[in-house]
User: Which sequence fits this backbone?
C-alpha cells in the first residue's frame, strides 16, 4: 500500500513536470530615436521632427556625419547665409554578450542671426532592454552583483560670442537611474540580494544653440558618443563579496538554451578629478577586488573664477562625481546640484539686477544645502574620505564665486564679468537641465 502510494506520488510529480510550461524566453528590445527642433524667423512655425524605431533586432537610425538641414534638405554649401547643418545618429546592438549603445549629435551654425528665446536643438536617444534574464552556476537571489559599463565619447561647445548659449549633454542610465561615468570606464553599479529579471540601458545626447535677438553669431556644439556606451560585465559575488566560480547572467530561449552569456569579469579603470583639483586619481580593479592607485596631473578642466561659464562647468563636473549606489542620499545631493544649475540658468538669462541677484542667492542656498547634506551621519557612512571632504570643498569654492559674481554689475542681459569666449571639451553624464529639456519639449 505504501509502495503504491509512493509510486503514485512520483507519477503525479512526473506528470506535473511534463505539463509545466517551458521557461519564458528572454526578449531583447532595441530602440533608436532621433529628432530636432530648428528655430524659424518671426511669423513662421518652428520646424520639428522625431523618428523612433523599435525592434527585436539591432536598430540604427540616422547617419554619421553632417547631413541634415531645414525642411529635410541636405546641408547647404559653406558660406551660405544662416548656415545650419546637423548630425543625429542612434544605434543599438549587441556583440558577444556585450550590449552596445551609440548616440551622437552635432550642430553647426554660421552667418546666423539670433532669435532670442528660440533655439536650435538636436537629440539622439538609444535604448536596449532585456526582459527575463537568467543565471547559471548560482541560485538567485544573488548576494552581490556588480554591473559594469564602459563609455567612450566627448562633448564640446564653441561660439563666436559669450552671450550665445551653446550646450552639449550626454546622459547614460541603468533602469532609469544615472550611471556615474568619469573617464572611459564607469563606476560599477552594486546591487545586493539581486534576482536577474530585466535590465534597461539608455544613452542620450543633446545639443542646443540659442543667441540674443538680432545678434550675428556662429557656433558649433558636439555630443559625440557614437564610440559606444556598453554593458561590459555582470560580476556575481557571494555574501563575503567573493566571486562565485562559474556563475554568470545568461539570456535564454523558450527551451532554456543559452543564446548568449553576459561576461562575468572585466578589469575596470576609473578616473576622478574634482573641480579645482590639480591631480587625477586612477584606480584599476576587478569589481570587489583590491585596487591599485596612481596619481597624475590632469589636462586643463573648468576655468576658475566668478563667471557664469566657470560656475556652470564646475556644477556639471560636480554632478558627474556624485556617489552612485547611495540611494536617497545620492538623490538628495543630485537635487541640490540640479537646483543650483536651474537658478544659475535663470540668473544667466538676465533681466533686472534684482532678479539676477535673487537667482544667484538661490544658487548659494542650494550649494549650502549640498554641503550640509555631506556633513550628515548618513553621508559619513556612505561617502568615504577623502571624497566627502573634496566634494564639500568644491561646493564651498562655488559658493564663494557665486557670492562674488552677485557683486558684479550685471544690469544687462549677458552681464558684465561674463566669461570670455572659451572652447571647452568635457565628458559627463548629468544630462540636460530643465532649460535644455524645455527647449526640446521632452521630459526625461
Assistant:
Amino acid at each position: 500500500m505504501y509502495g503504491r502510494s509512493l509510486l503514485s506520488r512520483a507519477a503525479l510529480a512526473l506528470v506535473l513536470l511534463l505539463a509545466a510550461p517551458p521557461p519564458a524566453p528572454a526578449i531583447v528590445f532595441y530602440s533608436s530615436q532621433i529628432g530636432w527642433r530648428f528655430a524659424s524667423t518671426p511669423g513662421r512655425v518652428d520646424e520639428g521632427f522625431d523618428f523612433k524605431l523599435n525592434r527585436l533586432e539591432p536598430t540604427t537610425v540616422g547617419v554619421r556625419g553632417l547631413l541634415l538641414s531645414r525642411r529635410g534638405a541636405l546641408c547647404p554649401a559653406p558660406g551660405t547665409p544662416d548656415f545650419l547643418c546637423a548630425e543625429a545618429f542612434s544605434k543599438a546592438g549587441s556583440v558577444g554578450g556585450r550590449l552596445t549603445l551609440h548616440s551622437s549629435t552635432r550642430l553647426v551654425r554660421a552667418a546666423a542671426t539670433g532669435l532670442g528665446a528660440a533655439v536650435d536643438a538636436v537629440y539622439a536617444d538609444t535604448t536596449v532592454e532585456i526582459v527575463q534574464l537568467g543565471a547559471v552556476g548560482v541560485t538567485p537571489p544573488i548576494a552581490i552583483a556588480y554591473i559594469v559599463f564602459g563609455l567612450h565619447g566627448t562633448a564640446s561647445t564653441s561660439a563666436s560670442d559669450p552671450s550665445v548659449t551653446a550646450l552639449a549633454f550626454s546622459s547614460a542610465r541603468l533602469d532609469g537611474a544615472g550611471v556615474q561615468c568619469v573617464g572611459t570606464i564607469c563606476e560599477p553599479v552594486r546591487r545586493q540580494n539581486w534576482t536577474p529579471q530585466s535590465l534597461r540601458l539608455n544613452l542620450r545626447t543633446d545639443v542646443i544653440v540659442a543667441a540674443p535677438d538680432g545678434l550675428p553669431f556662429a557656433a558649433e556644439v558636439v555630443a559625440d558618443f557614437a564610440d559606444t556606451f556598453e554593458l561590459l560585465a555582470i560580476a556575481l559575488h557571494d555574501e563575503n563579496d567573493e566571486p562565485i566560480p562559474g556563475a554568470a547572467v545568461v539570456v535564454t530561449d523558450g527551451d532554456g538554451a543559452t543564446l548568449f552569456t553576459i561576461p562575468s569579469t572585466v578589469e575596470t579603470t576609473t578616473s576622478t578629478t574634482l573641480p579645482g583639483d590639480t591631480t587625477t586619481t586612477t584606480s584599476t580593479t576587478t569589481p570587489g577586488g583590491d585596487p591599485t592607485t596612481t596619481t597624475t596631473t590632469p589636462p586643463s578642466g573648468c576655468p576658475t573664477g566668478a563667471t557664469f561659464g566657470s560656475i556652470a562647468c564646475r556644477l556639471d563636473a560636480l554632478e558627474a562625481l556624485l556617489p552612485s549606489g547611495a540611494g536617497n542620499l545620492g538623490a538628495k545631493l543630485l537635487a541640490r546640484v540640479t537646483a543650483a544649475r536651474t537658478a544659475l540658468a535663470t540668473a544667466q538669462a538676465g533681466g533686472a539686477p534684482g532678479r539676477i541677484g535673487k537667482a544667484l542667492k538661490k544658487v548659494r542656498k542650494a550649494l549650502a544645502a549640498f554641503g550640509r547634506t555631506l556633513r550628515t551621519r548618513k553621508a559619513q557612512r556612505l561617502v568615504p574620505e577623502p571624497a566627502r571632504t573634496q566634494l564639500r570643498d568644491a561646493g564651498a569654492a562655488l559658493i564663494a564665486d557665486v557670492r562674488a559674481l552677485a557683486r558684479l554689475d550685471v544690469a544687462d542681459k549677458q552681464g558684465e564679468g561674463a566669461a570670455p569666449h572659451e572652447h571647452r571639451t568635457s565628458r559627463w553624464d548629468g544630462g540636460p537641465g530643465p532649460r535644455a529639456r524645455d527647449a526640446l519639449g521632452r521630459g526625461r
